[in-house]
Amino acid sequence: MATGRLHLPLLDFAAAQHRDHQQGIEPPAMAALALTLTLNRSQSIEDQIASKLNQPLAFSAEELRQQARWIRDILDPQVAREGHDALHSDEILTLDELLRKLASSDISLEDIRYSRIHLAIRDIAGRATRWPKKLVDRSDVLKYAWIARYGPLKATGLPLYESGGRLNGICRPEDLSKEKLLVKWLKSPAAKLSPAVARRVGDLGFTPGDWWINPLFAHRAGIIDSGNSEGGIVSDNSGAYAVVMTGSDEVSGPTPEIFQYRARDRDPGRYRLTAGTPESRHPVRILRSHTLRSFWKPRAGLRYDGLHKVTGWSLVKEAKSNETVVVITFQRLASEGSMDSVLCRPWSDEVEDYTEYKRLRRQCREKQNETLKPSFRMTGDGTIDMREDEAVFLPKPSLAKVAGEL
C-alpha cells in the first residue's frame, strides 16, 4: 500500500531541539513525538496522530531526570523572567504531552525519587500564576495521583547515599574524617587518588560542566591532585595542569571565557604557569568553586569549566597588602564549546544533593559531639557537678531507720 510523509508543526520543534542539543541543552525525550508520521491512505490524519500519541512510552530513570532538568532549569527560569507567554506553542504542546504520558505510565517510586520529576511537577502546580492553566491542571492531577499511590512524596527524602544516589558506595554521612575517608578510598579501585593521575595534560576524559559536591570528591575522580578546599594550582616540575579557583582568586572579566587569576605567593605552580618553556604552554583545566567571588561561579560545589590557555601575565602591587602579586590571564579554548551549557551547572537536583550532604553531615557531627560530652562539669567552687541524666541517685533512708541509728 502506498504511503506518504506527513510533516506537522511539531517538526519545527524537533529542529529547534536539535539546535539546542548542539548547544549543550538537553532535549526533552518527548521530542521523539515530533518525528514525521507515516500517512496511510486508509486512515485519516486525525487517526494517524492519535495512533502515534497513544503508543506506550516507557521512561527510564535517566530520561525522567533529563525531563525534570528541562522543566526546572530551562523552562521554569524562562517563565519566571518573562511569564507564561515566553513559552512557545511547541514547548507547551510538548510539555502537555509529557504530562499526559507521565499520568498514563507506571513509574516506580524509586525512579521518581532518583529523577526528582515530582519536584518538577510540584513547581508547575505550585506556581499557577506562572504557567498556562492547562499545564497547571495536568500537573495537579498527576501530583495527587502519585500522592494517592505512594503517600506524601516530600517524606520520601532524597536518595543521596542509597541505591541510585550520587554518593552511594562512595561514603556515608558518618565519614566525617577526611583522613579516614581517603584511607577507605585507597581500597577502592574506582578512586584515582594518586597525584600522578591529575598531573597530566588535557581534559583527562572530563567534560566542561562536570560537577562535584566539593574538591575532595573531585580529587577522588582524578581531575585534581588533592582535596584541599582552599584551591590552588595542580603542578609539578614539568608544568601546571589545573587551577582550582576560590575566594578572591579571579579578577572577573566581561565574559567567563577570558579572566585574570591571582596566583598565590606560596603556590609554586605560578612559576609553571608563567614559564616561557614550550612544556609550559599546554592548556590547563580550570575549576571554579562556589566560594569564588565571581559572576561565573557555580551555585554550589565545584565545577569544571574546560581547558584554558595562558595568554599573558603581569606583576601587580596590591594597594591593601602592599604585596606584589602575579596576575595571570587565561582564555578558554574555542574547541571547548559554549559556556552557556556549562553555566547551567549545577542542576537543581545537584544543588539539592549538595544541601542534603551538608545537612546530614551537620546532623552526624552534632550527634557525635553529643556522645563525646563529659558527664560532669566543674562548678565555681571547685566541686564536680554530675549531669542530672548521668548522676546515680541513692534511695533516701527512712525516718525510722535514721531514728534507730541515732
Automatic annotation (TrEMBL):
This is Uncharacterized protein. InterPro entries: PUA-like_sf (IPR015947), SRA-YDG_sf (IPR036987). Gene3D superfamilies: SRA-YDG (2.30.280.10). The lineage of its organism: Eukaryota, Fungi, Dikarya, Ascomycota, Pezizomycotina. It comes from Zymoseptoria tritici (strain ST99CH_3D7).
